[in-house]
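=== Structure Prediction Worksheet ===
Name of assembly: unnamed complex
Input type: mixed (protein and possibly other molecules)
Chain count: two
Listed entries:
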Amino acid sequence: MPIIKVDHLYKRFGETDAVRDISFEVEQGTIFGFLGPNGAGKTTTISILCTLLSPTYGKASIHGYDCTEQSAEVRKSIGIVFQDSTLDKDLTAYENLMFHAYLYDVKKAEMRQRIDEALRFVDLYERRDDLVKKFSGGMKRRLEVARGLIHRPKVLFLDEPTIGLDPQTRAHLWDFIVDLPKKHKVTVFMTTHYMEEAEVCDRIAIIDHGRIITVGTPEELKKTMGGDVIFIGTSDNARAKDEIEKLFGVEVFEKEGELFLTSARGDACIPEIIRALGDMVLSVKLQRPTLNDVFLKMTGRAIRAEELSSGDTFKDEVRSYRRKFGRG
Amino acid sequence: MVEANAIYVLVAREFKKFVRERSRLISTLARPLIWLFLVGGGMSRLVSPGMGVFSPGRGISYIQFIFPGILGMTILFSAIFSSISIIWDKEFGLMKEILVAPVSRFSIVLGKALSGTLVSAIQAAIILALFPFLGIKLSVLSVMEVVVICILLSFCIAALGIVIATFYESFESFSVIMNFVVMPMFFLSGAMYPVRTLPQILKVITRLNPFTYGIDALKHAIFRGTDILDFSLVTDLGVLLGTSAVFVVIAALMFERKK
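=== Predicted Assembly ===
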């Protein structure tokens, strides 16, 4: 059963079309990734789902509640980790979670236990009485994940959860995130512009310029690239080529003394090739398409670090629009 | 809908930060003290009790005359500051955490207004404790009356501060608010001079300023029965309660609006 439904959603800020007619569904208990460069419309979509913005057209619902009409119910069903920290730096980790628990009307009898549990889950129990301003970026992000779980939401939104973190901290945070659906029975909706990170998702939507370009599992998306490429070095290329062509019924090419072929599941082919060729095999190399290749193929350009600035420009545009026309 | 839990935690957060940041308390108390003793002390030489304006027979000195105004100043600055910390929270994100919570906008506004009320009433109470040193005599009942009026005025100003805060997205606007809202409100209120001595045009503006009525109510409680009062106590309290309600409703509506 889909827990998030988005139907022809459209959002316009002044002259800028941030989101243009997007539709998708997210199944319960999965990790869904929104992949795209900054300024593609990811944060705008999250803001609409979180009831912070209303769409210009279209509908979105979470857990059966309409994001515009039934915002109170939607708010109860979701937890959010925003791109920029929303912790109170002058309060301790424990106080921040307590603040959240009161806002979400968690039963007093359960409050302490839930907070302790959440702090242990993100390894911050020992630091619970330290002021948040003393925390590193990674600790803050983990604390926000913990906070988002206190009221047991159905869906947890993570907007660029690893942005600005160093690689080790990022890997550490991912260990927590992939455990979320199992340990906390929560559906995760995340945005990222890091291709490698999107790999942990069950399904990915690639979004660019406010439009969804394609949706699928990481495997499916990579398959659209024509599959994996296997390179084989052998002691007798001519014989090996015949053997493999007989075995798989695909054409095998030779390049720079190495044989190569494409296959949908390269990893599963390798053992068969080795079994068939035996001692002839000198080396095997598997090259898999990355999501970066997929993005490149779909949009004609790669996601690069310099695109970070386009996000800022968009933010500025929205800000100056708000300044000009009030908050309307 | 009013969520008591949310209101409680908003007030508790503000109180915790207020207690934690002693330096903030000292700096906000410094302003009224400087005005009371430096401006009040200096002006007392120029404006003598016999000049006709300040109840001749009663002998109210200028420093005594501005005491209600200084109490009001303490409230005005601290309540506005407390409320426009919302802009701070918008800039640093905590406001988003509050806005996505399943809490009605009315409760958020009420919680923020009560936060401002609590911290500014505490500061006003500290300044109030100075009255014996200024030669002012107050009964226990009058002191309680002053405290109640301080609370009402604090709530009114805090609610106004929230309305102002909803118009701004960043803290750059801080000096604009100080120069175009707080200072005129203070000077056009009867805090430093009796309203009736003002030129006609300023008198009209003063009557449109809710802060004026708070100052007048404080004068009622501190100088009961003298002729320095501008309105009746009922008018004062009515205006304070009425404008408070209006500000809370406007603020809640402003919060409810989505982009």
